[in-house]
C-alpha cells in the first residue's frame, strides 16, 4: 500500500503539498509519487484511493487548507494512472466533516462568496473522472453534507447524521445543496431540510434516498472498499463515459440522449469493448486496459 498524508504540524499546506507533487517527465510512466499533506490523508491500494479529512480536533471541519489540499489530491490522483475509484471519508468516529470552519467562514466577505471556495472544490469532486464514494462516519453537516452530495455514492455508518443547518447561521448552503439535494431526495424534502436546518439520522437518510446504504460503524470502510473493488473491476473507459453521461442527463433527456449516443459510439471502437465481450463469450474475467 502506498501512503501519503496525515498531519505533520501547522504551517502552509499548499506549498508543501505542491512541492511534493512532480509532473512526470516526457516518456515517463503516468504513475507518480503522491503528495504529502497536513490536513488530509491519502493512501492507495488495489486501484482504490482513500482520501481522509484529518482535522479531528475540529471535527474535520473544512477550512481553506483542506480545500487547497483536496484540490491537489484530486489533480494528483487524476494523473497518477493506477487509481480506479476514490473513497472520501473522515478521521475518527465523530465526523465525516462537520461543515465549513466557522472561524474562517465568519471572516469571509462578498468577494469570497463569489470565488466559490467550497463550491468550486465540490464541483471538482463531482466532475472527477473516476467514480467517487463518500464513506460517511458521524456528522456530515453543512459543507460536509455537500461534499458527500458531490460524490457518486454515499455509504453511511449507523451513527452518521446529515443536515444543512446554514440558515441558523444567517447564510444558505451555497456549495451545491440547493441543486444536488433535490436531485437525490426530491424538491419537497430538500426544501424541508434546507429551510428547517433539521439534522436527520442514517435510517432517515436511507429512507429518503440521500444515502445508498447504511452499515455498522465498524464495517464502514470495509463496505466502502468492497463496493469500490466491485466498481474497479469494470471497464475504466465505460466507467468514465457512464459518469459523463449521467452528468449530462441532469440537463434533461435531450442532453442525456445525445451524450449516450456519443459515449456508446466511442466505446464501440475501444479495445475494452472488444476485450469485455470476448471475455464474456469465453467465460473468463476481462483484462481491461482503459483503451
Walkthrough of the structure:
It is a single chain. This protein has 291 residues and is α/β, with parallel strands linked by helices. The protein folds into two domains: 231 residues, Alpha-Beta Complex (2-enoyl-CoA Hydratase, Chain A, domain 1); 47 residues. Helix content is 46%, strand content 16%. The chain contains 13 helices and eleven strands. Strands 1-2-3-4-6-8-11 form a seven-stranded mixed sheet, sandwiched between helices. Helix 11 packs antiparallel against helix 12. The longest helix is centred in the N-terminal third of the chain and has 17 residues. It is globular, with a radius of gyration of 19 Å. The protein starts with a strand and ends in a 9-residue tail after the last helix.
What would a concise description of this structure say?
The protein is an alpha/beta fold. It has two domains: 2-232, 2-enoyl-CoA Hydratase, Chain A, domain 1 (Alpha-Beta Complex); 236-282.
